[in-house]
Write a structure and sequence with these properties.
about 425 residues; mainly alpha; 17 helices; 5 strands; about 5% strand; globular
Length: about 425
C-alpha cells in the first residue's frame, strides 16, 4: 500500500478523488436534509487525506513522529467530540468562529516551520511566509469575533484613534519584513527574529481588523474569516508541496468567499468597506422633518388574535436572532404544527443574514426537526407576503424593517428585506 502511494500518478488521482468528495460534502451541507451526510462525507475524506499524507511522506518510518501524530489526532478527536456534545446551539456562532481560528493557527504553524526547512526554494519560502501571515490574522481575528459574540468583548464597533493609519502601517511593515526575509539570504537568528515580528504584526492586524466590526456585521465577518482559513490552508499546502491540502483549502476558501459575497449583497454591504471597517457606521445625511399634519381621529379596531390565528390559512414565520437568543426554536416548531392542524399552510422565511452566523436560522430550525421543504429563502418567498393571511415575526428586526426601502443615510438603507409589512396581519414577538 505504501509503495502504491509513492507513485505520483496514483497519488494525484487519489488526491483528486478525495478533493471531489470534500466538495460534494460541502455541497450536501448546504441543504438541511443532507447536511449530516455531507458533514460525515467531508470528515471521512479529510481523515483519509491525513492518513494518505502520512503514508505518502513515509512517516511510519519515524516511529516517534508517527506516535506524536496519532496522539494529536486522538486528542483532537476527543476535544471535538466533547465540544459537539456540550456546546449549546446558542453558542454555535462562537464555536464556528473558533474553528475558523484554529484552522488559521494550524496554517500559521505550518508556514512558520517550513520557513526554517533547509534548502527551501524561493517559491516555498514565499508561500510559507504568506501562510504565516494569513493564518495568524485569521486566528486572532476569529478570537475577537468569538469574544464579541460571547460578550467577552463589547459588541459595538471599537475604533482607535487613527485606526485606518495603524492598519496601513501594520500592513506596510509586514510587507517590508516579508520581502527582506525572502530576498536576503539570512542566517537562522535574523530569520527567526523577522519571523516572530511578522507573526506578531499579523496577529495584531487580525485584532485591529475584527475589533471595529459591530455585532450586526458578524455573519459577514465570520464568513470572511472562514474564507481566510481556507486560503491559509491552501497556501500552506503550496509551501509543503501537498496538493491535497491545496485543493481542500482552495475549496473552503472559494466557498467562504462566495458566501461572503452573497451575504454582502443581502445586507447591502461592500466587501471593501468591511475590510476597511466602515460597515458599522452610517453615512451622515440630513433627514428632512415632515411638516406636522393636523391630527385626525382614527377609528381604532381591536384585533382578536385568537380569531386571526384560527382563520389564517396561509402563514409565514420569520425567525431572527431573538429566537436564537431565547432558544425558542422548539416552541416555534410546536406553533407551526398547531397552525397546520388548524388547516394552515405554514412556511418559514429565512433572510440570508438573520442571526449571528451564516445559516444560523437553518441550523436552529433543523435542530427542532423543521423540514427543509418548509424553509424558503428571501427571493423565493418575498412575493408571497401580499397574499399571506398571517405573518409571525419571532425575534427579527433589521431584516423586516421597511425603512430599508426609503430611509437614506441609515445603515440598513438599500438592504433587501422580507416584505412582512405586505401581509394581511402581522404578529411580532
Amino acid at each position: 500500500m505504501i509503495d502504491f502511494l509513492q507513485n505520483d500518478i496514483v497519488y494525484y488521482v487519489v488526491c483528486a478523488i478525495l478533493a471531489v468528495l470534500i466538495l460534494v460534502g460541502i455541497s450536501l451541507m448546504s441543504k438541511v436534509k443532507t447536511a449530516v451526510l455531507g458533514n460525515r462525507l467531508s470528515a471521512i475524506a479529510t481523515a483519509l487525506a491525513i492518513i494518505i499524507t502520512l503514508i505518502r511522506f513515509d512517516i511510519n518510518s519515524a516511529t516517534t513522529i508517527l506516535i506524536i501524530c496519532l496522539v494529536m489526532l486522538l486528542i483532537g478527536t476527543i476535544i471535538g467530540t466533547y465540544l459537539a456534545k456540550k456546546v449549546k446551539m446558542i453558542q454555535m456562532p462562537e464555536m464556528v468562529a473558533l474553528l475558523n481560528g484554529f484552522g488559521g493557527a494550524a496554517s500559521a504553524i505550518v508556514g512558520a516551520c517550513t520557513i526554517f526547512v533547509p534548502d527551501i526554494t524561493k517559491f516555498e519560502l514565499i508561500t510559507a511566509v504568506l501562510a504565516l501571515i494569513v493564518g495568524a490574522l485569521t486566528f486572532t481575528g476569529s478570537l475577537i469575533a468569538a469574544g464579541k459574540l460571547a460578550k467577552f468583548i463589547d459588541g459595538k464597533p471599537i475604533k482607535w484613534k487613527n485606526h485606518q493609519l495603524i492598519n496601513i502601517a501594520t500592513l506596510v511593515l509586514i510587507l517590508v519584513l516579508s520581502v527582506l526575509g525572502i530576498v536576503l539570504d539570512l542566517d537562522f537568528t535574523p530569520m527567526l527574529i523577522i519571523t516572530l515580528v511578522i507573526l506578531l504584526l499579523s496577529s495584531f492586524f487580525g485584532v485591529a481588523f475584527a475589533i471595529r466590526v459591530g455585532g450586526a456585521d458578524m455573519p459577514i465577518t465570520i464568513s470572511l474569516l472562514n474564507s481566510f482559513s481556507g486560503v491559509a490552508g491552501s497556501i500552506a499546502g503550496m509551501a509543503v508541496n501537498d496538493i491535497l491540502l491545496v485543493a481542500a483549502g482552495g475549496i473552503v476558501g472559494a466557498s467562504g468567499l462566495l458566501l461572503t459575497q452573497i451575504m454582502c449583497r443581502a445586507m447591502n454591504r461592500s466587501l471593501i468597506d468591511i475590510l476597511l471597517g466602515n460597515t458599522s457606521v452610517a453615512p451622515s445625511s440630513k433627514v428632512e422633518t415632515p411638516q406636522k399634519q393636523p391630527e385626525q381621529e382614527v377609528e381604532k379596531q381591536e384585533t382578536n388574535l385568537n380569531e386571526v390565528l384560527n382563520n389564517a390559512k396561509s402563514v409565514i414565520i420569520v425567525p431572527g436572532y431573538g429566537m436564537a437568543l431565547s432558544q425558542a426554536q422548539h416552541l416555534v416548531k410546536q406553533l407551526a404544527d398547531k397552525l397546520r392542524e388548524n388547516g394552515a399552510n405554514v412556511r418559514f422565511a429565512i433572510h440570508p443574514v438573520a442571526g449571528r452566523m451564516p445559516g444560523h436560522m437553518n441550523v436552529l430550525l433543523a435542530e427542532a426537526n423543521v423540514e427543509y421543504d418548509e424553509l424558503y429563502e428571501l427571493e423565493a418567498i418575498n412575493d408571497d407576503f401580499q397574499d399571506t393571511d398571517l405573518c409571525i415575526v419571532i425575534g427579527a428586526n433589521d431584516v423586516i424593517n421597511p425603512a430599508a426601502r426609503e430611509a437614506e443615510g441609515t445603515p440598513i438603507y438599500g438592504m433587501p428585506i422580507l416584505n412582512v409589512d405586505q401581509a394581511k396581519h402581522v404578529i411580532i414577538c
